[in-house]
Amino acid sequence: MEPFRIHILGCGSALPTLKHYATSQIVELREKLFMIDCGEGTQIQLRRSKIRFTKLGAIFISHLHGDHCFGLIGLISTFGLLGRTAALHVYAPKELEGMLHAQIELFCHGLEFEVVFHAVDTTRTAVVYEDRSLTVETIPLQHRIPRCGYLFREKPTLPHIRSDMIDFYRIPVSQINNIKSGADWTTDEGEFIPNVRLVSPPDRPRSYAYCSDTRYIPTLHRLVEGADCLYHEATYTHDLLSRARLYYHSTARQAATVARDAHVSKLLLGHYSARYDDEQTLLLEARSVFPPSFLSYEGAIFDV
């Protein structure tokens, strides 16, 4: 099975601390790299993670609060210094476009690569990116300004051809893809071999849902139903529910409720308030509702 991993570069909230970097993640799927959010310090974290800058093809910005996008222009500038030539695609709320182009003109004049901006409608669910391996669709969320999450869905793959059948029936390499696509096989002696005997089922497509920043949405589970992995902000513990409501954030219990109702396989918590010296209180609260909950932290890598 091809790798499908989440690399946590930063999982803090708006107030900078010495413990956590601002929000940023890398989604790795079939040797492609995608970034979600780009807070301050992201490019430092990229170097620490030893992730290759050149393989990053697209950046998805959830909303225009600084802890989710202040690192973007610095990263673009660094790409220029590194001699990047491949286009960089940025998906973000439309309000960023003018400011981003102005920053590029001021700080990154003479880039040898194109920054392609894609305005995202944060109010509806829509596929905003697609290639041969996956689709990325928006998840409308509720915060103090327009914002959305992103759902990464792996596309179905072909069945696996059985190596023992290749050897036994002397199937040439030139016919392997045809058999994966559903073709039967006839041996040189005229024996008919149905496709079902030649292949094993394909790997089940996987999915990853990213939901931060947002207040608790009772219907959100419908949009992330059955995801293999869900990242949901858990800024506060539930004793600060009134504060969470005021600032349109969620508690760990609410994040776990979404995960439970969506029947996801795994919940990652993040976007921690700077008030917590030990996020174990958040984890314990989440696990009381949804046991397969985990704390994200800088440098962590989670398999989807």
UniProtKB/TrEMBL annotation:
Zn(2+) 1 binds at H63, H65, H143, D213. GO terms for molecular function: 3'-tRNA processing endoribonuclease activity; zinc ion binding. Zn(2+) 2 binds at D67, H68, D213, H271. Binds 2 Zn(2+) ions. The keyword Cytoplasm does not apply. The keyword Hydrolase applies. Keywords: Endonuclease, Hydrolase, Metal-binding, Nuclease, tRNA processing, Zinc. It is an enzyme of class 3 (hydrolase). Signal peptide: none annotated. HAMAP family: RNase_Z_BN. Belongs to the RNase Z family. PANTHER family: ZINC PHOSPHODIESTERASE ELAC PROTEIN 1 (PTHR46018:SF2). Homodimer. Zinc phosphodiesterase, which displays some tRNA 3'-processing endonuclease activity. Probably involved in tRNA maturation, by removing a 3'-trailer from precursor tRNA. This is Ribonuclease Z. It comes from Hoylesella marshii DSM 16973 = JCM 13450. The gene is rnz.
